[in-house]
C-alpha cells in the first residue's frame, strides 16, 4: 500500500507507460441513452475521458418512408413528413406541400403564404427552444429549460387551435389550410408575441454570461467554415461557422423576400456560437411573425386555400349535397387527376438546415420516387470524426448542439 | 459580376466536356445534365473548383430505379453554388445488377453517408468509398429494398392486394 502511495506525486502520472491498464475502453453511447436524445448509437473508444475514435450507428427507427411514399397519393404523404423532424413538424408538412404545388404550378394566395410563414416560424421557435433548453440541461443547468418549455407548450396550444394536433401536426393541405385560423388562434399568437420575448431574455440572462456555461461550451467542437461546407452542413450550425446560407434568403419561398429579418452568423462555429445563433434566430422569427400578422390584416379575410378544386378536398358536407364537390372528391381520392410528368427539387429552411424534397413524378397516382434531403442525416455524419480527441463530456454537448432528431436521421 | 444563368453554365460545361455531357432539361429553373460515368468525377471536380462557378455545397446524392430501361439506375447529384446562388442537377445512368460508379468522397467528405444510403437502398457500388456499409437497414439484409422489384408489403397477403386500393 505504501508503495502505491509513493507513486502518486503531483508531478508524476499514476500509471506508467507500461501499465497494463493503458488499453482503450470501448463505450456504447446509446441507442437508448439520455444523452443522445433519440435512438441512435455511438460506439466510442476512450482513453481515460478522451475519445480516441468513434463509429456512429443509425437506423434504429428507420421506417422506410421513401418506399411507403412510392405507394401513396400526395396528400397521404403529409403525415409521413410529420415524423421526420417531429420537433418542428409543420415545416416538414409545408415543405412537402410547397413541393407538390411547385410540381403542379399552383398559385397560392398571399394570405395563405403569410399564414404558412407564421406557422413555420412558430415551429422553428419550438425546435430551437428544445435544442437550447436541452443544451442547458446537458451542461447541468435545469432551470432554464423549464422556463422555455412552458412557451413551447404554448406554441403547441396554438397548433392545437389551428389544426387540432400538437406534435405530429399534419397541418395544412396541398393548396393551403384545411380551415381558417380562428379568432382564438390569432389571439393566442398575439399573446405569444407578448409573453415570449421576456422569457427568452430571462433564459439568455441565465446562460449567455454564465461562467460555467461559457467554459463548458466556448471553444468546444469548433468547426471552420471550410470543414462545415466540406461536410455539406446547413442551417444554424453552418451559420455558426460564419457562412450566411439561409434558404429563406437565398431561394425565397412563401414570400419570405417581403419580410425584413436578419440572418445571424457566428464566428468560431463552436457550441456557444450555435447556441447564440439559435437564440437570435428565435428573435428574428418573432419579428417575422409580427410582420406576417400585420400583412394578414391587409389581405381579404376568409381566404385560406388556393382555388384548385382538382387537388384540394372539398368540405365534407358539400360532398353529400353538391354534385361538383362529389366529383372532385371522388377524383382526388381515387387518384384520377391529371398530373404533369416532371421532376422537382424544393428546399425549405428547416429548423436544422436545408430540408429538401426531390420528387420524380411519372404522372401516376403516387410519386415515382421521393427522396427526403434530411438535414440531421447530413449534419450528423461529421460527429464521429470530429469527436476524436475530444473529452467525452464535450462530445455530449457537441451532439446536443447539433440537434440531431432521430426521426429525421433515419426517415 | 453578372449573375450566372443556366445557359451560361451549360455553355461552360459543354465547351469543357463536349460529348460526355448531355443537357436533359432545365425544368423549374434547375439545369439538369446527364454525364457519362467516366466523366462524373472530372465534372464534379470542375464544378467545385472552377473559380467562377464554385459549386461548393453538395446538397444531395440519391438514386432512382427505372427497371424497364436498359440503363436501369440513375444516380442524381444536387450541387449548390452558394456564391452564385445557382443549383445544378447532375445525373449518371448506370446498368447492371451491381452498378459501379467512382465515389465523390474524394471531392466532398459529406458524400460519405449519402453514398452509403444510396448503396444501402439501391446496391450501387461506389468504388473507392472508405466505408461502404449499410447505414439504415440491418447489416445482414440481402436485398436492396428501394429497387422497384421489391414490394412494399408481403406479397403473400391476400387481404391487401393493390387492386382493392386503386393502385
CATH superfamily of chain B: NADH:ubiquinone oxidoreductase Nqo5 subunit
Number of helices in the DSSP assignment of chain B:
3
- Largest sheet of chain B, order of strands side by side? 1-2-5-4-3
The amount of helix of chain A comes to 40-55%
Mean pLDDT of chain B: 89
Number of domains of chain A: 2
Q: Note the main sheet of chain A.
A: 3 strands, antiparallel
Question: Your description of this structure?
Answer:
Chain A has 411 residues and is mainly alpha-helical. Chain A has 2 domains: 2-51, no CATH class; 65-405, Cytochrome-c3 Hydrogenase, chain B, CATH 1.10.645.10. Chain A is 49% helix and 10% strand. Chain A has a 3-stranded antiparallel β-sheet. In chain A, strands 4-5-6 form a 3-stranded antiparallel β-sheet. Chain A is globular and about 85 Å long. Chain A starts with a helix and ends with a helix. In chain B, 34% of the residues are buried. Chain B is globular. Chain B has a single domain, classed as Beta Polymerase, domain 2, CATH 3.30.460.80. The model of chain B has no long low-confidence stretch (mean pLDDT 89). Chain B is α/β, with parallel strands linked by helices. The longest helix of chain B is centred in the N-terminal third of the chain and has 12 residues, at 6-17. Chain B is built from 3 helices and 7 strands. Chain B has helices spanning 6-17, 40-49, 111-122, and strands at residues 21-25, 31-35, 57-65, 73-81, 86-94, 100-102, 125-127. The chains are: A mainly alpha (411), B alpha/beta (167). Chain A binds chain B through residues 58-59, 62, 64, 66-68, 70-71, 102, 229-234, 243, 245, 250-251, 334-335, 342-345, 347, 354, 356, 358, 360, 365-366, 368-369, 371, 373, 377-378, 381-382, 410-411, and chain B through 27-28, 30, 32, 56-60, 62, 64-65, 76, 78, 82, 85, 87, 89, 108-114, 117, 121, 134-138, 145-146, 152, 166-167.
